[in-house]
């Protein structure tokens, strides 16, 4: 693009209109990220970029269908309780494929290294990539390495892409969420974000908060094995549960009503969020999923989830409703309601 961008022609709300340069919030997975895609990337891509441009895409290849996904990881610090940027990159891409109902098969991994980074740290991250891929049952089949000048990066950045196979007839997506669906979650929320921030900010708890980073395709397979028509799956990473639910509500034009008391927020996460002025619903997760299933089948799916090690804390947190389409509302413990907004930018930058 050589022509100057006309910011005044954009229809998106603040703060994008008055932000002619990239800010951290553009990478947060919230409203600013969505506006950047919709008002800059889509017009720039033209016909080549038609389609949903989601976390993963299901595309036909002959008589088969494959899921394809790519993601980049800029985590700070690179090592945190329960994991590192290496296993996080593998698990994150595996999970994006799994949320399409795919069986993950192959990954690429590209390392972007800052000059001066210790080779021992690079080796430690590479070993974590290999171990996570082996544990998830996927193969690393291609990759790349680049080095940037000292001061132009920050240690190690990773880019991963993944390919998986989708079973015939299986259709899972945000557009399928329907009025009457039960909204399920596989366990405690906000754990990954707080684990990273506890290291970054030096916050101490009675017990160590460990990241929930994990590959979720086995849990998804157990859910699908019930035979229930699972409408929607989403791993609430950047922007947390709030961003994922708002995106689903808007895509499917349904309202979502949450029960605040049902939200599984661990005490350590609640305490950290209170201390830092954060909303737990907007904190990133890396080993949890949201599922939308017909209410009549919710107990069957919950039983399958709870029988799996990564879904032992599964519970229903809400319902899809016909009222307030495109909006997420929480029923508070005091009997009132509050709107759960889409995050504007990013509460916790460089979490994933």
Automatic annotation (TrEMBL):
A Pfam family: AIRS_C
InterPro entries registered for this protein in UniProt: HypE, PurM-like_C_dom, PurM-like_C_sf, PurM-like_N, PurM-like_N_sf
Organism domain of life: Bacteria
Annotated ranges, domain PurM-like C-terminal: 179-324
Annotated PurM-like N-terminal domain residues: 55-166
Assigned protein family: Belongs to the HypE family.
NCBIfam families associated with the record: hypE
Name used for this protein in its record: Hydrogenase expression/formation protein HypE
Source organism: Paractinoplanes durhamensis
Organismal lineage: Bacteria, Bacillati, Actinomycetota, Actinomycetes, Micromonosporales
């Amino acid at each position: 693009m050589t022509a100057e961008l006309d910011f005044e022609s954009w229809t998106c709300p603040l703060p994008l209109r008055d932000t002619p340069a990239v800010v951290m919030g553009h990478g947060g997975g919230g409203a600013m990220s969505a506006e950047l895609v919709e008002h800059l990337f889509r017009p720039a891509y033209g016909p080549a970029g038609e389609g949903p441009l989601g976390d993963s895409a299901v595309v036909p290849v002959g008589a088969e269908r494959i899921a394809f996904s790519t993601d980049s990881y800029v985590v700070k610090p690179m090592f945190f309780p329960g994991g590192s940027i290496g296993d996080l990159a593998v698990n994150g891409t595996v999970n994006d494929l799994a949320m399409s109902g795919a069986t993950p098969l192959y990954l690429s991994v590209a390392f972007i290294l800052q000059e001066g980074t210790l080779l021992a740290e690079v080796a430690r991250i590479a070993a974590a990539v290999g171990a996570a891929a082996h544990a998830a049952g996927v193969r690393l089949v291609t990759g790349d390495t680049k080095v940037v000048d000292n001061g132009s990066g920050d240690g190690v950045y990773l880019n991963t892409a993944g390919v998986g196979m989708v079973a015939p007839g299986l259709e899972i997506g945000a557009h399928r969420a329907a009025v009457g669906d039960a909204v399920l979650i596989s366990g405690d929320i906000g754990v990954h974000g707080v684990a990273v921030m506890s290291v970054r900010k030096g916050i101490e708890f009675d017990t160590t908060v460990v990241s929930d980073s994990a590959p979720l395709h086995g849990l998804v397979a157990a859910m699908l094995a019930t035979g229930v028509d699972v409408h929607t799956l989403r791993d609430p990473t950047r922007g947390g549960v709030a961003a994922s639910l708002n995106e689903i509500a808007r895509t499917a034009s349904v309202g979502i009503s949450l029960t605040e008391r049902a939200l599984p927020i661990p005490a350590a996460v609640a305490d950290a969020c209170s201390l830092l002025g954060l909303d737990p619903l907007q904190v990133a997760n890396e080993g949890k999923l949201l599922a939308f299933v017909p209410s009549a089948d919710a107990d069957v799916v919950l039983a399958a989830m709870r029988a799996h090690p990564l879904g032992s804390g599964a519970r229903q947190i809400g319902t899809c409703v016909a009222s307030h389409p495109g909006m997420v509302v929480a029923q508070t413990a005091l009997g009132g309601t509050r709107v759960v907004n889409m995050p504007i930018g990013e509460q916790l930058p460089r979490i994933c």
